[in-house]
């Protein structure tokens, strides 16, 4: 079954470069970047905070069970597994898959399949070496396997994804400790 048969909506994220401001009070939002995605998780502390004065339609904010795909190599697929994503803007270098048919596919299975197998297989079969398009994504085939079979590996995938979140936090904390130790020895602050 093709992706376009599994999701209600498939579209490109918000174009920040064409955004025009208004006279409203600036509001803080977070932008997703490719580095924000690790093992299909969108890592909260790797989002980019930005003040905006533009009105962005709700459709461009991350919603529950959205799956996003970066358009450029290396293709990354991510999802935000926490409910506080209402101020996370998806920029136009990502394609958004919204409204998964949960009777047919597992929300955990699909992004992992796409990142580890599906996108690269499609790109190779169709000689795509550059950017993906919405039409490319719509035509990627998902495996025709039962939801029960998908759910058998979803717990394993969830555990690995959870571990990657913990690992990311540990690495960031280690980086802060090293910076602190170096600054104590050298006696100066060094922003990186």
Global structural class: alpha+beta
User: What is the CA-based Rg, rounded?
Assistant: 19 Å
| 3D shape | globular
The biggest beta sheet is recorded as: 4 strands, antiparallel
Order of helices and strands: EEEEEEEEEHHH
Strand fraction equals 15-25%
| Mean residue pLDDT | 88
State the end-to-end distance. Answer: 46 Å
Spans where pLDDT lies below 50 across 5 or more residues: none
Helix content, binned percent: 25-40%
**Number of helices in the DSSP assignment:** 3
**Strand order in the sheet with the most strands:** 1-9-6-7
Tell how many strands the DSSP assignment holds.
9
What does this structure look like?
The protein is an alpha+beta fold and 192 residues long. It contains three helices and nine strands, in the order E-E-E-E-E-E-E-E-E-H-H-H. It has helices at residues 109-125, 134-138, 147-186, and strands at 7-12, 27-31, 37-38, 41-42, 48-52, 67-70, 77-78, 88-89, 94-100. It has a four-stranded antiparallel beta sheet. Strands 5-2-8 form a three-stranded mixed beta sheet, with no helix packed on it. Strand 3 and strand 4 form a beta hairpin. The chain is globular and about 60 Å long. It starts with 6 loop residues before the first strand and ends in a 6-residue tail after the last helix.
């Amino acid at each position: 079954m093709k992706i376009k048969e599994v999701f209600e909506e498939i579209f490109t994220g918000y174009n920040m470069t064409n955004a025009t401001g208004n006279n409203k009070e600036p509001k803080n939002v977070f932008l997703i970047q490719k580095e924000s995605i690790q093992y299909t998780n969108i890592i909260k502390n790797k989002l980019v905070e930005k003040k905006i004065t533009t009105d962005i339609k709700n459709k461009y904010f991350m919603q529950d069970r959205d799956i996003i795909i970066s358009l450029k190599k290396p293709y990354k697929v991510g999802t935000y597994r926490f409910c506080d994503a209402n101020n996370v803007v998806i920029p136009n270098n990502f394609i958004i898959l919204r409204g998964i048919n949960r009777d047919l596919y597992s929300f955990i299975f699909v992004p992992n399949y796409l990142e580890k197998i599906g996108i690269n297989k499609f790109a190779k079969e169709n000689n795509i070496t550059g950017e993906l398009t919405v039409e490319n994504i719509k035509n990627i085939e998902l495996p025709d396997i039962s939801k029960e079979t998908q759910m058998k590996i979803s717990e394993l995938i969830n555990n690995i994804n959870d571990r990657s979140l913990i690992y990311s936090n540990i690495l960031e904390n280690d980086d802060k400790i090293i910076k602190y130790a170096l600054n104590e020895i050298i006696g100066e602050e060094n922003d990186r």
